[in-house]
Amino acid sequence: MLKVENITKYYGENLAVDHLSFTVKSGEIFGLLGSNGAGKTTTFRIIMGLLDSNSGTVTLDGKKIDYSVTDHIGFVTEERSLLTKMTVEEQVIYYGRLKGLKEEEIRKRLDEWLEKFQIKDYKKRKIKELSKGNQQKIQFIAAVINEPKLLILDEPFTGLDPINVGQLKDAIYELQKKGCSIIFSSHQMEHIEQFCEKLLILVKGRPVLEGYLKDIKEEYQKKNIMIRGDIDPQELQAIPGVLGVHKKANEYEVKIESNKVVEKVFKKISHKNITKFVVEEPSLNEIFIAKVGESYDE
Asked: Do 110 and 142 form a contact (C-beta atoms < 8 A)?
């Protein structure tokens, strides 16, 4: 289990992380979100022991992060961090040896991963000869070749097509089943919703929202009603508590301030030809925009 307790980090007079605390249990996928400059990268660097915090502690399975512990951490960065003139095999062996693994074990694990990702023929090819998607797969393999207890994923799907995204998702779930603690960061909120049960949103280095995703959605009052049928948008817009009516393909999205408005909307259209009337929880993207916006307005 990863435990981050009350960490604070200054760069000169600039406060980057402000008394941040959270835990990630074994086998849990935790979402760490924030706009650019929110403090995510600094937090990652502190967790990996690359930066010292000004105060607070970080432990993995009860041990303070040092070089003996970082051998059990994997990190997939948003930017490619591969040595492009090396072959796939050379690259992964290099990273594996840095993590204290024996070459024989690295080769065995590499062959297993190449088979899973259906790229076993690329083993002797140079990194620069691979597509961006396959380079990302190699970066992932290099990050998990040590079978980490903690894996940090920073925008892991950037630039990937749906097939490669699917393969990487399967690999992440496999690591989760083995008990790996995973921190997932992405600006693509649909991926956070798919993966993470628990999340935290950072603004200016401090948490503005945290908890289980299902609880966050339930507590967020604003809802959406999806309606398909013969309706008058202006008529719905005039209902007190309706925040907006938007056309989406062959249906309308009606944004409402709370569940109390649902009955008013239903009564207004109940006599019309309606083929769909569904009340939906707000998307994480809507909640993120609202919470980040509120914090910047303070």
From this structure: no
pLDDT, tens digit, 9 for 90 and up, residues 186-199 = 888 888 988 899 99
Written as one letter, the residue type at 45 is: R
Distance, in Å, from the CA atom of 2 to the CA atom of 275, rounded to the nearest integer, reads: 48
pTM: 0.85
Tokens of 201: 């949103």
Residue 291 token pair:
């919470």
Query: DSSP secondary structure string, 147-182?
Result: --SEEEEESTTTT--HHHHHHHHHHHHHHHHTT-EE
- Domains of the chain and CATH, by start: 2-217 (3.40.50.300), 221-280 (3.30.70.920)
Residue with tokens 């691979």: 130
Q: How far, in Å, are 1, 22, 218, 239, 297 from residue 207 at the CA level?
A: 20, 10, 19, 35, 15
Rounded Cα distance between 113 and 135, Å, is: 13
Residue 218, exposed/middle/buried by CB under 10 A (0-12, 13-18, 19+)?
exposed
pLDDT digits (tens, 9 = 90+) for 70-88: 899 999 987 778 999 999 9
**What is the β-pairing status of strands 55-60 and 73-76?**
unpaired
